[in-house]
Amino acid sequence: MKNNELKYQWLIDWHIVNETDYLLWWDNNLEIPVNRNKNNYFYNQGKLKRTRNACVLYGNAASLWYTMDYEFSEKELLEIVDLAEKEYWWKEDKWMYISKWVDCVRNYWNKKFPDRKVKTFRMTIGDENFAQALRNNYRIVVWYRTCWVYYIDSQDDWVIQWERFTDFHWWHCVSCIYKDWIYIEDNYEWTKKYNEYLNNKIAKLKDSWTFFPSAFIYLKEETMTDTIKDNIDLDAAKEMFDKWYWNWLNPREPRSRQEVMIVLKRILDSNK
User: Fold this and answer.
1) pLDDT (tens digit, 9 = 90+) per residue, 162-214?
2) At residue 203, what are phi and psi to the nearest 5 degrees?
3) What residue spans define the domains of the chain?
4) Residues 201-207: contacts with CB within 8 Å, 24+ apart?
5) Which of 15, 18, 33, 146 makes a 20 to 30 Å CA pair with 4?
6) Three-state SS letters, 97-141
């Protein structure tokens, strides 16, 4: 097995997967703001010796850098590896559960950039959260069991045609994005013929357990001020402010009965 892992660096033994990583997915609808970023970055995990088997590092980093429009340096990627080894007990030949890598990458970023913190959520491939995240322009962390047939299918014409695969021996972590169709964004830029390929069958492949159901997203951890700004209708807000109707609380928060009466009184007073 180890010889295969070193020779075929995009493939990893899937038996180390913690079953809770795909049994405990997120059930609630998330508020997912539109991601305005259009800059994308691609890396080759095999370029650095210490990351050649760290597909989960690159799958998570890809989701994070696309949310934050940030290009990681090799030094920073190796700093994340250092953190994984020191605090998450990761070793190159021992692997680490995907949920631990999510924690590791998020915690690295939040410590390095305390003024630009992110939060992570688990979702299920095919649910409304997943669909909304794709529509709103996010790279989502996904992972799948793989085999030679899947690899060949992705590389012969950059389109996944098959809807069922068998004879799994490894698993792999990547990210996906929506551009009219769903594309897999792999971690082998310059070494794979098609590092990006179309996979519009991801939901069906989830049902047959080629893709694991759980997926992960990185969102900005906005301050209350940021949240208020993002939800303000500026024209309506200016009018409400000019008329002294609005008390400048978060427009999405429900008003108390007392606040409603104060607003009504202001409106009545202004119309006298």
Assistant:
1) 888 888 878 899 999 999 899 999 999 988 999 999 998 899 999 888 899 98
2) -65, -40
3) 2-221, 225-270
4) 201/160, 201/162, 201/163, 202/125, 202/126, 202/142, 202/176, 203/125, 203/126, 204/163, 205/144, 205/160, 205/163, 205/164, 205/165, 206/125, 206/126
5) 18
6) CHHHHHHHHHHHHHHHCCCCCEEEEEEECCCHHHHHHHHCCCCEE
Average pLDDT value for residue range 152-159: 92
Query: When comparing pLDDT for 225 and 62, which is higher?
Result: 62
User: pLDDT tens digit string along 117-151?
Assistant: 999 999 999 999 999 999 999 999 999 988 889 99
Number of H helices, E strands in the chain: 11, 6
DSSP structural state of residue 22: H
Superfamily of domain 2-221: Cysteine proteinases (3.90.70.10)
Grouping H, G, I as helix, E, B as strand and the rest as coil, residue 232 is coil
Mean pLDDT score across all residues of the chain: 80
Residues in the chain: 272
Q: Give the separation between CA 217 and CA 17, rounded to whole angstroms.
A: 19
Integer Cα distance of 152 and 166 in angstroms = 13
Which residue type is seen at 181? W
Q: Which two tokens stand for residue 109?
A: 């970023």
Is the model's pTM score more than 0.85? Answer: no
Say which amino acid occupies 32. Answer: I
